[in-house]
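FAQ: What does the model actually see?

It sees only this:
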Amino acid sequence: MKTEVIRGNIEALSPIHHGGSESYGTIKPILALPTVVKNAETGKEEIDQIPTIHGNSIRGNLRSLIMQDFLDLLDYQLDSKKVYHFLFDGGMLEAVDAKDKGTINLKMKDEIRKHIPAISLLGSALGNQMIQGKLKVGMADIVCKETSHYLPQDTYGKPNFSAYGLRGEDFGTRLDSLKEERADDEAATQMKYEFETLITGTRFTHEFILEDALPHERACFIRMLNLWNERPFIGGKSGSGYGKVRLNYDYDSTDEKAYLDYINENKDTIIEQLDEMVVKWK
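And it is asked to produce this:
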């Protein structure tokens, strides 16, 4: 068994729009989770709602980047919605008959893990099988005085600002400008919606955990981090300037070479694997 931990820090270079699971009217709150914190005045432990960046958000971003890069390296045009969902969205399990062509046996499961390193790392589901990933993506924990007793002491020291000071608010509008669907003297309908953000300068601590990764799989993970550094965003509305971050992880960016060599050396076999999957799950 081999476990490797890659720790890093994330700093917001623009407001982060990372909405929670609920909406209140036209207001979208920031994702916050119940957390045991220390009251700065009394020193007593309390439960509070502390903003965070969910590991699924980071994981989903990495998956999109590495899978598109994977297809680009192969110069492969994917022609299957199910296989696309399997690669880019984590797939889904299906109840299938034993004679159904949608079943996946253990041999094919091993072949998929072998030929698609990113699936071996991130996992997915297809047909009747779940492929467990070797990469664990942690929550990005906000740096603030409420959570300072959880933070690595050599990272930011003792922050003296509250999580509440890191919350911001912004708004957007939607305009119905389809003139043909309204009278000439009728004004266009405009809707205003509001959402919470984490302000520019908000900092996070974060870590990845690799479990029993083969050399080319570890190199695939490094490739993911390099791609993320090329497009350093978190959360939504990046097209409007939100979510740009500075990433600082402790790793050697040149370690991606083993993955690129693996793809290049096994390109024909990998394409055959994808073709077989597309035929099976057209």
